[in-house]
Design goal:
Length: 97
């Protein structure tokens, strides 16, 4: 659930029509955990973003040293393997219809 101080309504942050649609689309990364490509959703997100040559910088917000260490460990593992990116592409096509 949302933190009590969180905004009640948030504008879209990606390409979906609403914030909730963006969150649902990002939730597809959970399938990579289930399929064994990654250990966690944050790892999936970090490794996904560094899989794209057009991305030169990733801003990481960490609230604990453990979160920062996890982010660094995910990036050290490198980009997602091609099979994971292919799987994501298939899943996004299913969601978009």
């Amino acid at each position: 659930g949302k933190h009590p101080n969180a905004m009640p309504s948030v504008a879209p942050i990606a390409s979906g029509p609403t914030y909730d649609a963006d969150v649902r689309a990002a939730g597809i990364l959970k399938k990579l955990v289930k399929d064994g490509f990654v250990r966690s959703l944050p790892e999936a997100a970090y490794r996904f973003i560094i899989s794209h040559d057009a991305i030169g910088t990733v801003l990481v917000g960490a609230s604990t040293i453990e979160h920062l260490e996890d982010a660094a460990a995910a990036v050290v593992k490198g980009p997602l393997p091609p099979a994971a990116l292919t799987r994501l592409n298939e899943l996004w096509k299913e969601v978009r219809g």
